[in-house]
Amino acid sequence: MSLTAHIPSHRKPRQRSASTIALRAGVAGGVLSTIAVAGAAGPASADPVTETIEMPALNVAGLSEAVAQSAQATQQIVLDQELQAQEDAAAVKASQAAKKAKAEAVRKEEAAKAEAKKRAAAQERASRTAERTALSATTAGTSSKPSSSSSTPSGSVGTVIAFLKAQVGDAYVMGATGPNSWDCSSLVQAAFRQVGIDLPRVSQDQSTAGRQVGTSNLQVGDILYWGSAGSAWHTGVYIGDGKYLDAANPRKGVVIQDLSGYPATGAVRVL
């Protein structure tokens, strides 16, 4: 070793790399930063602050009272709801009972009307039966003078005429066959059935059911028709004195009319 090596001016300077210089600078900077942070934080961490938080005291008595009041209010609401439900159910039940009572009253009223109508119809039928019996008894043993013939009607003619007169006032209904409503041909058919003669049902056939006699030689009990024989549209029965009896139309019903007001086309005799 050289004797002058310890003298700085005589030392050979060391070659330091750039990375070494940068590393040392970084380390130095980090140390200085740590010192600065520690210095700043030192006094704060030296004396920690202790704070005591006081919890409010619970009012147990007040809380119990509030809970009791809430339970009481809830119970009252439940009671009110139950009472309302009971009132609603009672109202529905009363309404149903009222409807049922009204329906029953209507039913009884209708039944009473039907019964009254039935009794009236029965009385009317009994009256008609009595009238027919009386007329049959009166006419069956007597003769009727024809308007244009010297012959005397038989008892069967009297029965036919009595039946027809007993129906005067009945209604005219197309297609009806009695006992209180008729059309023209059903009335004629029913009258002759009283003496065992079964005539056709419709006017066309009734106009050819017996012997043609014309309208100038009529006898009581002859069947009158309007229209040509075989295609007549209306029939009735001659009852003498220029009159005939028929189920005329819906407006008149069963009536006695003057033949001169509505002359027949022809007539047939079955008795």
Features:
single chain; 271 residues; alpha+beta; endopeptidase fold (from Nostoc punctiforme); six-stranded antiparallel beta sheet; two-stranded parallel ribbon; 5 helices; rod-shaped
Question: What do these coordinates show?
Answer:
Strands 3-8-4-5-6-7 form a six-stranded antiparallel sheet. A two-stranded parallel sheet has the order 1-2. The protein has a domain at 140-269: endopeptidase domain like (from Nostoc punctiforme) (endopeptidase fold (from Nostoc punctiforme)). α2 (60-140) runs antiparallel to α3 and α3 (155-166) packs across α4 (184-193). The relative contact order is 0.08. It contains five helices and eight strands; from the N terminus they run αααββααββββββ. With 271 residues, the protein is α+β, with helices and mostly antiparallel strands.
